[in-house]
Amino acid sequence: MKTKLYEGMFLFDSNLAGKDWPGLERHVEELLKKNSANLLYSERWPDRKLAYEVRGCKKGTYYLTYFNAIADTIPGLERDCQLSDRVLRLLVVQEEGLDGDLATRKSRQEKAPPAPAPPSPDAAAASPVGAKADEEVVVKETTPAKEEN
């Protein structure tokens, strides 16, 4: 079977990350190794306030990873992360162009994600369609009001 390049974003409780970051890195390496994945690159992102509580946590630490794995092993990795008491969430992506992203990150040795762009004066009137990729977009779903007879 052929391996593919994947990008994985792990989310941890920021309190746990502050206390035992090396232990969390080892935990991720063990999870990947258990599922026959080969870690190529990783980077810790700064703590951030979460949009909503995840397992009772209001702040989280993101850990970006790039790894090679066989496609059949990804569901096992996701299951192991769901069962882990240390990993709050995991997002795994596999698409064209990841090798370029990995090469760019390795060459720059980035330690944090790009800083968000400053809000424009008309940001309040901006719609999600016109939002930039690095801006957080919150979309509220509304239901139409019922007409009274």
Fold topology:
Elements: E1 3-13, H1 14-19, H2 21-34, E2 38-54, E3 57-70, H3 74-83, E4 87-93, H4 98-108
Antiparallel strand pairs: 1-3, 1-4, 2-3
Descriptive notes:
The chain has 149 residues and is of the alpha+beta class. It has one domain (3-108): 2-Layer Sandwich (Alpha-Beta Plaits). Helix content is 28%, strand content 33%. A four-stranded antiparallel sheet has the order 2-3-1-4. The chain is globular. The termini are far apart.
- Look up the CATH topology: Alpha-Beta Plaits
What's the story with the biggest beta sheet?
4 strands, antiparallel
So what's the overall shape?
A: globular
Would you tell me the overall average pLDDT? 80
Helix content: 25-40%
Low-confidence runs of at least 5 consecutive residues:
120-145
* Extended strand count: 4
- What is the spatial order of strands in the main beta sheet? 2-3-1-4
